[in-house]
């Protein structure tokens, strides 16, 4: 896989994860594009840019799908978006360091749909726990692995 660009579903991406991505962009000289429906402040770097899309359901997701290419990496916690990107030949990594793959995405979609059904029937399922140091480290390690694989190609 030759990675051309790292795309970030930036509206929901934690700031600490963005910081890791900014350092990786400059260290590896790879473009990082943050897509959000609000203005973002990013460090001045020729490797980092933002795209502001209009507000609306899935507008940022649709932009990423339309502009990403096979081999690109997308940072997202949005499981349906990850599924669409994997089908397109992109890699998808969530902010907790889990790499979505063809092998695990169906199970993630089924669990998401199950929890949506529970919430729809009034059962409180709670959200994910806050991002902690272990999550940040898992993300940084997985990102480094992917960047090293890309550098060897």
Care to count the β-strands? 6
Q: Helical element count?
A: 5
Please indicate the percent range of residues in DSSP E strands (runs of 2 or more). 5-15%
Low-pLDDT stretches: none
Order of helices and strands: EHEEHEHEEHH
- What is the SS-derived class? alpha/beta
Shape: globular
The gyration radius over C-alpha positions equals 15 Å
For the sheet with most strands, the description reads:
6 strands, mixed
Strand order, sheet with most strands: 3-2-1-4-5-6
What is the typical, i.e. mean, pLDDT? Answer: 89
Helix share of residues?
Answer: 40-55%
Span of the ends, CA to CA: 7 Å
Describe what this molecule looks like in 3D.
With 153 residues, this protein is of the alpha/beta class. The chain has 5 helices and 6 strands. The protein has helices at 15-28, 59-67, 79-88, 105-120, 133-152; strands at residues 6-9, 32-36, 48-52, 73-75, 91-93, 99-100. A 6-stranded mixed beta sheet has the order 3-2-1-4-5-6, sandwiched between helices. It is globular. The mean pLDDT is 89.
Helix-strand blueprint:
Elements: E1 6-9, H1 15-28, E2 32-36, E3 48-52, H2 59-67, E4 73-75, H3 79-88, E5 91-93, E6 99-100, H4 105-120, H5 133-152
Parallel strand pairs: 1-2, 1-4, 2-3, 4-5
Antiparallel strand pairs: 5-6
Describe the structure in brief.
The protein has 153 residues and is α/β, with parallel strands linked by helices. Helix content is 45%, strand content 14%. The chain has 5 helices and 6 strands; from the N terminus they run βαββαβαββαα.
